[in-house]
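thought: fold this chain, then report.
action: predict
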Amino acid sequence: MKKIILLVLALLVLIGAAVGGYMMFGPKPADHAEEEKKVEKPPRVGPPVYAQIGPMIVPLMGAKNVQQNIMFTVSLEVDDEPTRESVRAQSPRLTDAYVQALYGGLETGQVIDGQILNIPALKTKLQEATDKVLGPGIVHDVLIQSVTQRPVY
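observation:
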């Protein structure tokens, strides 16, 4: 009798593991939301339009105090004039998102190499923050207009 109970119990564990593995690694159901995201907008007609954000000042903190101030201005490339106006309306949220992203990037060293600002990494961080605030596909490119690094004496 013990052998039969152990055999049934082992069989249940084996079936449970097989079902769990199939659910974890088996085929995924089609997600219609992903298909809707793949629908692309029609191509832009005419030249791009730019919305300027900034200037913004972000202090770079050292061990005990501020080591330098970084000031930059950003222009966001959008499709048309109504989109530019909606981006301008969101500029306070964008500025806040940029400062938050850069504080994290400056603190962990992702955006700055030693004492010099890494412009491609800065541009990537700003694009990620823009997509979080406005949604992907609204802004096509983040253009850094000016960057100034000044040490604090």
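thought: worth noting. The chain is about 50% helix and 25% strand.
final: tokens above.
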